[in-house]
Sequence to fold (679 residues):
Amino acid sequence: MVLAPALADEVQYSLSDWGGIGLLQMPNARMAPDGSMSGGLTALGDLHRHYTISAQPMPWLEVTARNSAYPGYYGLTEPGLDLKLRLRREDERGPALVIGGRDVTGSGLDLPGKGRFAGEYIALSRRWWDLDLTLGMGWGTLGEAGHLRNPLRFLGGRFRRDRDPSAWPTTRGPKAWFSGERVALFGGVEWHTPVDGLSLKLESSGDRFRAQRQDEPGFDPGSRYSLGLSWRPASWADLGAAYEQGRRLMLRLSVRFDPAVDADRPNRPPPGVGPRPSAGSALSADAIALVARSRGLPVRAAQIEGEVGTLWLDPAGSGRMPLAREVGDAARLLADLAPPQVERLRIVTGASGLDTASVTLLRRDLERAANYRGSAEEIWRTTQLAATADPPPGWRPRLDLSTRLVASFDLAELGTAVAQRTHTDVVLRAEPLRGLVLGGGLRVNAASDLQLLDTNAVPAAQPVRSDLPRYADRPLALDHAYAAWLANPAEGLTTRLSGGHLEEMYAGVGAEALFQPLAARWAFGLDLNQVWKRRPESVLAIDHGDARGTGHASFYWEAPGAGTTTALRLGRYLGGDWGGTVEVMRRFDGGIGLTAHATWTEGPDGAQSRFGGRMDWGMALVVPIAASGWLPVGGTVETTVRTLGRDAGQRLQQPLPLYDLRVPGGVGRLTGTWSHLLD
Fold:
């Protein structure tokens, strides 16, 4: 008889010493919840300090930014970017399977001993009741125990040669993946105890601290076995303690954010739909718009014409409520308040005067659904979609004040374990005419330690962003002040012309065009900009001798429902370097956004800093916040981990990118959230 494992509905997981999901020193095949993010500090005796921020930008991808400090390494730290990809989910037929690596990029300066933590692995995890078993094979630092020959040795070359961490020049990055003469097995078990959130871990490691033994001839790596505890006293906290290698105490403190648990969702009930009012008691279009705005809907115009009632939502889908829920609430108000002859309810979604979709529902369908005789799926069968609607009879000017709190962390420096910058932007945006946008932002900078960035080691003659400390040291600064004109010259085509102080460091003019057919999951964009460097010592002055041309062709691909968009950009960056960027943009319930990007270019020229290399990458978690007693106006809180102060691979931070304007109110987002229409 075969003993089948008892699979839990939701597999529990905990963080490893290295910031990602795992055992202690070793990884496992588990993944964090989709869209979650965590950050923390791990201390292993007097040997290692790991500063980590980890994110789950896709259900199958874990990304960890890490910087490790340890004694005796020229007073420098060891940054790294760690990845884990899920190849198979666990089910009744077999275990979960992942492949991954530490320090996978190998970017940065090439110093003796650099890349000593680099290693690759494959791992299997299988759950038996409260026991989670893991078995894996490691290369590089994860394979130093050398139990077996490299199974890829038949490929010859680097797969047969010793992978010496002290060799210089070093072999790092993709050209070192899965190389080396020998590999090691690792494994362990995690017992999820009856105490909620508490687990016990036992592991056998494949790491024998070869680099440390080379640095210190008397260094004792200790045992391969480690024993530890992981405890989650709250949904946002993850604590760990262990006795590792039979000689070192490990302590770990981490904080976590899971959008499925921690998101602040609106709890206002939807509008009711009663009997149709008589012709004398029905409200006018302007009165219906006023009622809608009092319920928090972004109604800019309204119209009652014959049997059609129309509301224009602008900006649509940009708040904490799903787009279909906004459309459903607006349609319910029309159904409840419009004159009795109105049979078709039209909701037009858009942003900044740009229509993105026109949705027409039948009034009788909503009335049936309000009496529990219909559903969102049945309403969909008679719903009509169009690209645009007739222009509104009037357009209500808009003045919006918001805040943006941003905490940025850089874990990619050699001179410091963590560099940080924190600032608050007070943003004022006006739309006096349909299609005309005027924007301004005041930036309040908190204290930072950007002077510790590697790019400050030797100042560049023509910096792109390596002079960032000069801008961040100003307590108060004008972040942006611009004007933009937006238009829809043809169906599916959107254009933008903009000029002014576009961002903190650059001013100039730009143009962008975006083409996306109504129901297409793809879009193509082109942007061209001519900008000049702003002088940090002045509010408005620019350096006329520092002109830069930059632009990109962008291709966007939306997953069904437009909750995930992948963008590929190719073009010329601010430093004159050519290359490409891959960006993944996610949106979750409650308006939470998670983005990740990676840029690779030909590198900086001779007048720019070479300390940052040719790669730029980053991740950002954006959480909307509502106005409250301590924050008079709403906005967002953003936590970012990325490379700061680099000269290669730097894009202009355009304040009004067209795709970001269109997608929140687009057909893809509408269909993806349609199940929330009647929530």
